[in-house]
Design brief:
12 helices
Length: 394
Amino acid sequence: MAAREIVENIYAVGTINWDLRYFDAIMPTPRGSSYNAYLVKGSEKTALVDTGEPHEEAEFITNLMRLDQHSLDYVVCLHAEQDHSGMLPLLLEVYPMVKVVTNEVCKGLLMAMHHLEELEERFIVIGDIETLSLGDKTLKFYLAPWVHWPDTMFAEVVEDKVLFTSDFLGTHYASPTLFQDNDLPEYLEAAKRYYAAIMMPFRASVREYLALIDEIAPVIIGPSHGPVLKLPAKIIDLYREWSSDTPKNAVVVGYVSMHGSTKMMVDFLVDDLVQRGIPVQQYNLLETDTGVLGSAIVDAATIILATPTVLFGPHPVAVNTAYLVRALRPKAKYLGVIGSFGWGTNAVNYLAEMLSPLGAEMLEPVYIKGLPDEPAIEALHKLADSIEERHKTL
């Protein structure tokens, strides 16, 4: 993808991977992604903000050459993860005079991950609210740790009110346009999927840096993935909603079933909740994209995990899901486990222990032997009663 001008003398020079279907070998990316980098040309100096994946170096260098960029003064590293810094070693060779501008934490990570110890003299360490003059453009830096690594920082081009936010407010979405289209459902879906996987574990930090962005009041935000945000109010408002502590009156039921008993229990519970007017989403965990499940649990007040027993414990797919839910740290207030077993089980205790770090209330489990019978149906009714009663207090 060719370099594109954002405002005068600020260009998007990163690359788009239309075919990417998994990020970090864990996160499905059905609509591809981009590795954003930005060139800021001042009247005296030029800075490149972030780089990209090393396997896309030909396209990246071509973008710079198309802008006649035969020299470079600074490479600003907002975050050390390799999808942003992967081409740093190459750029240090291509531009022998270039200096790396970053914070102390990021410097340490970059030097360790790329084995740059011998090039330490080429690093310039900056702190919070420090500035770097490029002539008629000024870069102002804001430390923003834990959205999502400890080294993350933002950089603002003060004169243009353009803010580069690293992964914060990004999207794994190969956009057909430079700027976002808030009317595109697939873009907003991708934005929520990205928030769930990358930012949700750091909700408190998300709220903190949303407040910082309110203070800065940028007119354009350039994240490290996805389209550039022009008039970013829409996505900022969504982040404010997603990161709040208030869940919605909604239930997510994820299930895996071996012989149908657990599925029958799920169908009964979901039908009961629907009849009570409680919004509920049901997912077969064997077939569900983890990004879809991650998006679903962003807002839900209750998460139910349904699993049969394999040997003594829960089905491995249910274990994977419990691990994912624990890692993403949604704001759900209530958790439940239902399912069926043959000759013995420890599934409920196993899953309850896995999910305990979330701090949510564990509802009375419904775990039965074989097919659901009348007592099992009555227990599922009581579980639906509990959910309905608790959701009234949201």
